[in-house]
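Weekly modeling sync, notes
Attendees: AB, CL, MP (scribe)

Item 1: holo prediction request
CL wants a bound-state model with flavin-adenine dinucleotide before deciding which constructs to order. AB pointed out that an apo prediction alone won't tell us much about the pocket. Agreed to run with the ligand included and paste results into these notes for async review.

Input as submitted:
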Amino acid sequence: MKKTDCAIVGKGPAGLSAAIYVARSGLDVTVVGRDIGALSGSDLIENYFGFEEPVSGQALVEGGTAQAKRLGVEILTAEVTGAGMIDDGFQLNTSEGTIECYALILATGLPRKKPSIEGVKEYEGSGLSYCAICDGFFYRGRDVAVLGNGNYALHEAHELMAYAASVTILTNGRDLSTDLKLDDKISVNIDPINRIEGVDDYVSGIRFSSGEFLPVQGIFIAEGAASALDLANGLGVATAMNAIETDKDGATNLPGVFAAGDCTGALAQVAVAVGEGAIAGLTASRYIKKAKAESQS
Ligand SMILES: Cc1cc2nc3c(=O)[nH]c(=O)nc-3n(C[C@H](O)[C@H](O)[C@H](O)COP(=O)(O)OP(=O)(O)OC[C@H]3O[C@@H](n4cnc5c(N)ncnc54)[C@H](O)[C@@H]3O)c2cc1C
């Protein structure tokens, strides 16, 4: 377990910019991210301030990473699978262990797309959920499936074991790819999926391409890594229109949780992500200093 003043999820422009401001205010900060984010697909950026010639997305993030490290920021490469509240702050579950912090900044970029499987949209809220920690309780004693093939799917399956009669991970034709340990009680089915079926407008099971049918009363979507929306939902942070809601200072409705960059629904541009990161970093720093002072008095 690692303890830090401020944990930041995301090592793209928003997360790194936030980290630079938190570190310069004299606090400990740990950034955890899977990869460099949206800029990995951007060869030439011509519209970011301060570069006479176009710069690659990778070079921009490498520069921000080096700058943050020089200021004492710890940067970890890991996947965050869940976030929760503890007595004096928050805990992140990651593929490399847990991190505890006074304040949390979410800078995870755009939420991922929904899987294009027939029935996904139709059964949302009628047996199909995106959050085990929020909805798992409603599936007490039922058979449920988790759709996904990585760490996040496994994390959601483990959450559901506390409630469900059985939990099956459905990889939809892919290998299970995870650093986490698979509990013996969780089944894995790798067959390609044809569609989600229902009875009386409620999920009744999964039809595989082979024609076989797996009866389940609940399906949890956990494709890819946990998105900002997944982490926010698990914490009770308000979201709207696929984005985390923040005030002008980057604060969410939950004291101690802040957000910046594409995950807030802002204009998806590096300049905006860097600006929002700076604001969230400053606001988080003020919050942490107050929280630490209160806990010591
Ligand atoms: C192809 C392309 C070209 C673009 N061109 C331009 C351009 O020319 N100019 C411009 O200004 N903008 C451009 N953009 C937009 C710009 O890339 C984004 O606005 C910016 O990167 C947003 O920064 P961010 O930090 O909010 O998110 P991102 O840069 O997407 O970073 C998200 C971070 O969160 C991490 N993360 C997400 N989930 C998890 C998890 N569960 N666990 C751990 N880490 C996680 C990711 O690994 C990553 O580190 C382009 C985007 C794309 C896709």
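Recorded for review: Residues 9-15, 32-39, 41-42, 45, 47-48, 79-80, 107-109, 225-226, 261-262, 268-271, 273 surround flavin-adenine dinucleotide (CB under 6 Å).
Action items: CL to compare against the apo run; MP to circulate these notes.
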